[in-house]
Amino acid sequence: MQPLLKVENLVKRYARRGLGDAREEPAALDGVSFTIFPGTTLAVVGESGSGKSTLASCLACLESPTAGNIWYEGKDLVKCGERARRQARPQIQLIFQDPASSLNSRWSVFEILIEPLILQGKYTSEEMKQRANSLLERVGLAPDIVERPPTELSGGQRQRLAIARALALEPKLLILDEALSALDCSVQAQIANLLVELQSSLGMTYLFITHDLAMAAHLADQIAVMNRGRIVEQGPADHILRQPKHETTRRLLAAVPRIARAAFPAVEY
Amino acid sequence: MASVLEIQDLHVSYRSRSGMLHPALAGVSFGLLPGEILGVLGESGSGKSTLAVSLVRLLPGNGNITRGAVHFEGKDLLQAKPEELEQIRGRRISLIFQEPSLALHPTMRSGEQVRQVLAAHSAPGKSALSERTRQVLAEVFPEDADRIARSYPHQLSGGQRQRVLIAQAIACGPSVVIADEPTASLDPATQMEILGVFRTLKERLGLAMIFITHNPALLSGFADRVLVLYGGRVAELGPAAKVLASPRHPYTKALFASIPAVFEESGSVPRKRLAVIPGDSPISCLPRRGCCFEPRCTERMEICREREPELVNLSASHTVSCIKYEN
């Protein structure tokens, strides 16, 4: 099977802002390579500052990488022209951590949902209305909320709405950048179940970025562990969890809080 | 054992712009024992942050404490005069908030920020102030207190910033610290590190602490007792080991079941469907007949719709508010 996304030696450096400061900033991404096959989930885990979110922005074409290739369905998104990139972009959608700040609070649910459709300019208003309703149904929201602003929705409903908006253009790849971290435990479980359902009904492919290894273990087929802009370990999820090789993985595993743990581990500081 | 802080039948409401009263806490009672860490567990809308601020009367303008009492050092804080409260806030009871990058002044060195807390509450000489500032910072940064004191917040990591906030909170030697989601914005390794700091301080300084979180797993091995809030009411209160290992309230049980299982203990990697609590959490604990968890409860009975549950003592230290356990 052909991979949906293949990333080779991706490097991203941010320029220093000071005048005349010629020193090079350490790379936010330092030679990252991985592949994702259609219909599977790759979890990228790592501590804050390990480069996870930079990776998400590069893949969604929000930032251009300093070096490396991003092959999406056999096309290199780094080297190809703007026209080809425009065609690929709707197929890669991004969902952010905080649904409250990624939804315009002055718009209604309906306006939020049809915005991507309007931008594509290919749909009549009747089609858009139908589309909005079927999207809401798909993510388990009641159709009667279309006129309400997102501020009147609960955290879980808002994240469902963000997912519905991301699905509007029928993407193949969803990049979830800490999409569950800001939610309550019971709501996390609801959204995680929704993601699994969408994967089996629509054949979605996920890049799931998180620092929660327990959730990564639950959702992912493959896990890549990042540290300082590099992938230090990657492989099948259960393999990584059972036999962590790299120190970062072990540290992340040790930090997974669990309810049944007998005693608090001694922490040196 | 006598409590350091005794909360009795606390009721708090918010007034919306249309003038409607929305209750956020409806009859919360508990005592904080000296030197203990009480974990308060609740999801959005459970009233946990309202609880944190109402204990020291820092509610926003539209918030009202409508009933109850908060006894601390022989006084009812809810009846105290503003001057008396000033003597208590930050000095005897201090608060730590969630977002360390917002709570610190961006263009002031962190040492100065700790020093100002001390200066606001006591007026010793200049050199005594500096000496005490150094001591307090050394308490949370045993290694490099001096370097941290000279640093601006943007030069510090999230964990270091949170430690500066902790230094501010313990600067005046309070007997109670209230921390509202202090680790929510940190990554897991740093979270553990900050919990370690709290634990150490509690043992060294004998602090009593109210630690508010939405993540039950954080409390395991950390809190001494756990209080579960749901819809502005106490659902369950008991020793952490008991509540976390064998929860009794249907809400607590359902909440714990919705967390992804721990992989290494099961035979294979658990997969695909997590248990969920049906429905949404209540946006406000509107007065209604019956138990506020009833609409989402899998163990509900006819009677649950008719009256509110009473607090039932399962043992001397473990109470639960559920009709199932009555008589």
Please, could you describe this protein's structure?
Chain A is α/β, with parallel strands linked by helices. In chain A, strand 4 (67-72) and strand 5 form a beta hairpin. Chain A has helices at 52-59, 82-88, 99-102, 109-120, 125-138, 155-167, 185-202, 213-219, 237-242, 247-254; strands at 5-12, 29-36, 41-46, 67-72, 75-76, 92-95, 173-177, 205-210, 222-227, 230-236. Chain B is built from eleven helices and twelve strands. Chain B has helices spanning 48-55, 82-88, 100-103, 110-121, 126-140, 145-150, 158-170, 188-205, 216-219, 240-245, 250-257, and strands at residues 5-15, 21-32, 37-41, 63-72, 75-76, 93-96, 176-180, 208-213, 225-230, 233-239, 311-313, 319-321. Chain B has an eight-stranded mixed beta sheet with strand order 6-7-8-3-9-10-12-11, with helices on both faces. In chain B, strands 2-1-4-5 form a four-stranded antiparallel beta sheet, covered by helices on one side. In chain B, helix 4 (110-121) packs parallel to helix 7, helix 5 packs across helix 7 (158-170) and helix 7 (158-170) packs parallel to helix 8 (188-205). Chain B is globular, with a radius of gyration of 21 Å. At the A-B interface, helix 6, helix 7, helix 8, helix 9 and helix 10 of A face helix 8, helix 9 and helix 11 of B.
Key terms:
heterodimer, A: 269 residues, alpha/beta, 6-stranded mixed sheet, 10 helices, 10 strands, 36% helix, disordered C terminus, B: 327 residues, 8-stranded mixed sheet, 4-stranded antiparallel sheet, 11 helices, 12 strands, 23% strand, globular
Record the SSE blueprint:
The complex is a heterodimer of chains A (269) and B (327).
Chain A: E1 5-12, E2 29-36, E3 41-46, H1 52-59, E4 67-72, E5 75-76, H2 82-88, E6 92-95, H3 99-102, H4 109-120, H5 125-138, H6 155-167, E7 173-177, H7 185-202, E8 205-210, H8 213-219, E9 222-227, E10 230-236, H9 237-242, H10 247-254
Parallel strand pairs in A: 3-8, 3-9, 6-7, 7-8
Antiparallel strand pairs in A: 1-2, 1-4, 4-5, 9-10
Chain B: E1 5-15, E2 21-32, E3 37-41, H1 48-55, E4 63-72, E5 75-76, H2 82-88, E6 93-96, H3 100-103, H4 110-121, H5 126-140, H6 145-150, H7 158-170, E7 176-180, H8 188-205, E8 208-213, H9 216-219, E9 225-230, E10 233-239, H10 240-245, H11 250-257, E11 311-313, E12 319-321
Helix pairs in contact in B: 4-5, 4-7, 5-7, 7-8
